[in-house]
Amino acid sequence: MEVLYTVVLGAALILFFCFFKFPYFLQDCRFMRKMLVVRSKRMKFREKTPFYSVLDCFLDVVKKQPHKPFILYEDQVHTYLQVDQASNKVAQALQLHAGSTVALLLENGPVLVWMWLGLFKLGCPVSMLNTNIRTKSLLHCFRCCGASVLIAGAEHREAVCEVLPDLLAEDVRVYILGDAGGVEGLHSLTEKIQQSPNTPVPHTLRDNITMSSTGLFIYTSGTTGLPKATLIPQDKIWGAPFFPYLTGVKADDVLYIPLPLYHGAGLLIGLAGAIERGITVVLRRKFSVSQFWKDCRKYDVTAFQYIGEVMRYLCNTPKTDTDRQHKVRLAIGNGLRADVWQEFQRRFGSVDIQEFYAASDGILSFINYVGKVGAVGRVNFYQKKMFPHALIQYDAEREEPVRDREGRCVPVPTGETGLLVVKITKLAPFRGYAGNPEQTEKKRLRDVFEKGDVYFNSGDLMRMDNEDFIYFQDRIGDTFRWKGENVATMEVSDVMTMLEFIEDCNVYGVEVPGHEGRIGMAAVTLKEGREFEAKEAFIHVCNFLPVYARPRFIRILESMELTGTFKQVKVTLVKEGFNPEVISQPLYVLQESSHSYVPLTHSDYSMIIAGQTCF
Ligand SMILES: *[C@@H]1O[C@H](CO)[C@@H](O)[C@H](O)[C@H]1NC(C)=O
């Protein structure tokens, strides 16, 4: 009896000890099992010829559950079968050669979905253009994916007409989903699609597709210059659609995607992820904070996708009695700050939040599957073994990793912030950016820990605690995020220096209390004897830059400080922010109501700091 008692007590003590030492043991096991399931599925896809793509997965869902709603949009319900047939019509209407790239300039909605699937049915790679871009940027993005066809929504007619002469000169076929209005070189596609049969095109069109065939181009604002087209091969497309499964989305969930579908998050994690689960999605043209919960109630949404901004906007709305009247049980996404996380759950009820870290040009992702507030992920044993990665010391002044005497990088101790680098291997390949070998090379970091090794430079500063939770700290280099979009500082600089009174320009993001990301600021020097022309500057930035990239603040400098290697010094400027107490030189703020930049006053500043200014 006494022996048994001792054994039981011993076992209890061991369990108790394990629970304290490894509190996440069960969750880790469950998650690793899921990762292995995903891995074995992807192995199977790879063995198939032609490759088993997201489209094949879609067609299988259509066979299995043709009448299940796939897309809910406004008051429309589109079943899987209906979307299949609509995409057949697109494929029949276009009849393009397999392999020719097509660029889409479309807002969120069912049309985008069947365009995308229809083009995949023809074996055509699809380039997803950001719908905010215009003129020079639009042309650049279109060109760098090597597309020969552009299909634009009717609402983008003006943007297309601006670049039409250039496109036509390059023999591009330009379609508009609406009335072409007699514009030469602009073709209407709407009628053509309506008149086409809804029967499938031969699947032999896709016979040559392998795991390494180009499937998609998604744009990211990289470290410098204009946006870059990230080339996503068929196999890498599958790197995202399993996120819903990994984060616990179930077959009977209704997933709300309020994010733009031209980003990897909305298109691949949201939409393709929904196809992988065979579930219903709710789409909306643009995210609307006032409609969000109304939509959730209207469509019986049970899960939604977010970025940090979405959650903050939701928390910033006035409290109502209906805050907890919804069926949402799960939110998946990234960029959620710890304070907003807690506020969201306090206010809207016990929604399970699954935060993750992923980038469309990245090769490693993390998921915070235990819901630890503030962390973007948990690094488990499997990832450590299969995807060697490290956080290394980074010199913010010189904007490069710290190297030791042998020229090797230096890992940071646990708990300290370092730059995330991931070893490029066969299992974690980095294909780079389309038509941009220079930018591609910039993301490759060589001789990191050994001579000849190559790592992917994520550009993200992260911190890992002693429990293997990983936290996002900041972005480095020449981009910052604002309103969920990456802003490339060089692109903004290029636009600013087109103004003839500006001599030099240094663009960076400054933090504003109560907002995610950073708000754009341009420090400029003026040409000798010239004044700052506020009105002209305003008109110019509105013409050339999307709303999120326009510098909110402009600061006039006497001279531009450069580093020893002639790089512009940003660190001090970023630190000084936009505080008129600190900055003695002229400081302007963009004011939409007066269609100009106006001097920033102390009271403007206080209002911004107090969160009383809308951006
Ligand atoms: C597939 O490749 C073969 C051999 O290169 C070629 O003859 C055929 O036209 C290709 N099929 C398609 C649909 O591109």
UniProtKB/TrEMBL annotation:
It comes from Astyanax mexicanus. GO terms for biological process: long-chain fatty acid import into cell. InterPro entries: AMP-bd_C, AMP-bd_C_sf, AMP-binding_CS, AMP-dep_synth/lig_dom, ANL_N_sf. It is an enzyme of class 6 (ligase). Residues 61-425 form the AMP-dependent synthetase/ligase domain. The chain crosses the membrane at residues 6-26. One of its GO terms (molecular function) is nucleotide binding. Belongs to the ATP-dependent AMP-binding enzyme family. Its EC number is 6.2.1.3. Gene3D superfamilies: 3.30.300.30, N-terminal domain of ligase-like. It is found in: Cell membrane. One of its GO terms (cellular component) is endoplasmic reticulum membrane. SUPFAM superfamilies: Acetyl-CoA synthetase-like (SSF56801). It is a multi-pass membrane protein. Keywords: Cell membrane, Fatty acid metabolism, Ligase, Lipid metabolism, Lipid transport, Membrane, Nucleotide-binding, Transmembrane, Transmembrane helix, Transport. This is long-chain-fatty-acid--CoA ligase. The keyword ATP-binding does not apply. Residues 493-567 form the AMP-binding enzyme C-terminal domain.
